[in-house]
Amino acid sequence: MKNKVLVASLVAIIIFVILVTAGFMFKNKNDNKNPSESTTATDDVLSAQNTEPTTGTTKGNYIENTTFFTPDTSKLTFSYPIKTSFKTSNPRLSFMGSASKDKELVCNGTNIQRASCGAFAFDVMLELGENVYEFIYGDEVKTFNINYEMSLISGVSPKGKITAKGGTEIEISATCKAQSEVYAEINGTKIDLVPSGSGDMVLYSATCLLPVVSENTELGNIKIYANHNGETETYTAGSVTVIGTTVDYSYFASAAPSAEKPIYMSLYQTNTVLKTAYSNHGLGTAPMVEVLKNHAECTPNENADDKSSPLTTPLLQGTFDYITGVCSYEDELMFNLQCGKKIYAKQVKVLQNGYKMPQNRLSAVGCEIKSDATELKIASDWAVPTNVILNPQNYYANAQGRPFAVASVDSSYLDIVFYYTDRVFDTFDVSKSKSISAVEWINVGVNGNTTLRIHFKLAGYFYGYHIELVGNTYKIRVNDRPAVQKTKTVMLDAGHGFDDTGTYSVYSGIYEKDINLSLAWRVKNKLEQQGINVVMTRYGDEDVTLDERTLVGRTSPDCFVSIHCDGDPNTTTSSGTHTFYYYNYSMPLASSIHSNLVTAYQSIYPVGTPEYAAINKGAKFFPYQVTRLEECPSVLVECGYLTNVSDCNVLISEGGQELISGAIANGILYYLNNF
Question: Do residues 606 and 29 lie in contact, with contact meaning Cβ atoms separated by under 8 Å?
Fold first, then answer.
């Protein structure tokens, strides 16, 4: 397969060279910009972003003439701003659009520089009060009236109602004007917020622990204060209530789905094989929940927010657990569970007097060696909570402070914790497994729980798992290495669709959803030529929800790749590509695709240009929903910025689409054949 990848790469290069030679896709590297098109900024407020180099510099092989997505440049059109009169608190404003170069385009007396295809994109810094921008294009005049009202604080978190137990960590953040002094105040306590990032507005944040109280205590609203050069501003954030040690569960149960009309089907309406909290086991009663949604996402109890953590995995439909507390975040009601997780109230049915469950027993039923995986079967007395973690693994904090970025996959085993379990029976014969070297029960009954440890034959190589409860049997599927499989399946997800257009582009009427779909089809064709089976979450301009995309992704393909394009609402200068992962074992796929995309863009942009310098934005951790799949490595790819003229022209052109889709396909192929 390595030879096939090399051949595919050579074919892509040959096609690329043919297109360059033909002259309809790329500008010659030595083409100089026409001196008559040069722009001299005479208005300090108007700082036009060059879409071509200034006179005397050489121009690289930017892809410009579009033969796939063809914008209408016969008249002056704006893709942004959409409104011609509005108020804003952002000091920076972007103008994007297109107009044929057969006529001069002037804004406030300044010639607007355009790419050869007619596109323009530039940023302006607004002055306080009224700002008027008049565009003249032949006989056509278009005027924008923008009222800039300076705001030191543009957004805060959390909002709404926050309810949590004492000792819970809460994060407070605010987007404020750079170089400001920012702090929060809650119940008379001052908390200094620390800035991160760069730009006109930056994120300020800090964490604090809620006090432990005996009774429910309202701390009131969080107040955010900002001071910038003597200017001050105050913003009211969410209101905080600390739950006391004695909880009235009936109040919160009334807000949860009723037993008569649950959002999801109860497993035990039809299945009575397992012991349940609906039957008396002679142990008394307690407030409990039954999980009604399969793969119900959970977050750690110790944090007040609802940020996903790869160390806190979803719960299966039918799971029972005990309620230890109630909480809410930004008006979303959740329950604290005894297993250490909190779960959304809309995903469970509340049993105010559920029958307490006996300690659980597990028994190894068998091991089935499949063509692409090893499946372990475990009989259980009842549906206990589980948690699945790859160990060991070194993590570090990313730029957003999330401590789950990885430089490599270090794990050599998978730990599955079964809560409330103190007895196990029998073992597994995995001698014929292609991916598992050994399976053992460890920490049996420690703290009332038991762990199943699955050792890998190759440390650092893991390809996803699937766990489900069928009758009274847990089925745990551990995927084999794609490289040893005869048939490989890739799932492609073209981001957005139908009414969800995604980000806007430089050109009016050209949307991210269509570019994503075109790229996905091209990647599909390239992979199929290499013998890969490809499935897509959408094949046309369809409305596919995030839940539907992840549900399809749980059918255990060898990898899941979500294809997107980026956009920056604050500036037209942002460009480049980045790829995102969630679980550590998705990082190699993200890195493989990303390195190929970087190489592709480096073949387009000349060294020394701003676009070349901004190409590599990295393979990063981020909890996008479509990347939170346990079943296979799953990544989200941002192929470039549609709000940047250069990136946009690459992404809408025939040659650019071929090059970028080829890079994604080669990244997938390299991963499948080498990891």
Answer: yes
Q: Residue 487 — pLDDT band, cuts 50, 70, 90? A: confident
Confidence band for 31, pLDDT divided at 50, 70 and 90? very low
Angle at 211 between CA 210 and CA 215, to 5 degrees: 115
Q: Which of 267, 315, 543 has its CA nearest to residue 419?
A: 315
SS3 sequence of 80-126: ECCCCEEEECCCEEEEEEECCCCCCEEECCEECCCCCCCEEEEEEEC
- List Cβ neighbours of 573 (8 Å cut-off, separation of 6 or more): 49, 123, 610, 644
At 135, which helix (H) or strand (E)? strand 129-137
Say how many CA atoms lie within 13 Å of 184 toward its Cβ.
28
Query: Which tens digits make up the pLDDT trace of 149-204?
Result: 989 998 999 999 999 988 999 999 999 999 999 999 999 999 999 998 888 889 99
Task: Give the residue extent of every domain in the chain.
Answer: 2-8+485-674, 153-243, 249-355, 360-480
44 burial (CB, 10 Å; 0-12 / 13-18 / 19+) is: exposed
Q: Please confirm whether the linkage preceding 158 is cis (ω < 30° from 0).
A: yes
Contact 118, 73 (CB under 8 A): yes
Of 70-84, 245-259, 589-603, where does mean pLDDT reach its minimum? 245-259
Task: Name the β-bridge partners of 423.
Answer: 361
Which pLDDT score is estimated for 64?
Answer: 41
Choose which CATH entry (2.70.50, 2.60.40, 1.50.10, 3.30.420) describes domain 360-480. Answer: 2.60.40
> Minimum mean pLDDT among 49-53, 264-268, 558-562: which range?
49-53
Rounded Cα distance between 66 and 446, Å, is: 64
Neighbour-count burial of 327, counting CB atoms closer than 10 A to its CB (0-12 exposed, 13-18 middle, 19+ buried): buried
The reported pLDDT for the residue numbered 197 is 84
pLDDT at position 249 is 54
How far is residue 61's CA from residue 78's CA, in Å, rounded to a whole number? Answer: 26
CA geometry: angle 415, 367, 416, nearest 5 deg: 15
Under DSSP, is residue 239 helix (H, G, I), strand (E, B) or coil? strand
Class of domain 2-8+485-674: alpha beta
- Looking at 2.60.40.10, 2.60.40.1930, 3.20.20.105, 3.30.565.10, the CATH number of the domain 153-243 comes to 2.60.40.10
Q: What pTM was computed for the model? A: 0.86
Tens-place pLDDT, residues 607-635: 999 999 999 999 999 999 999 999 999 99
Binning the chain into helix, strand and coil, the percentages to the nearest 5 are: 20, 40, 45
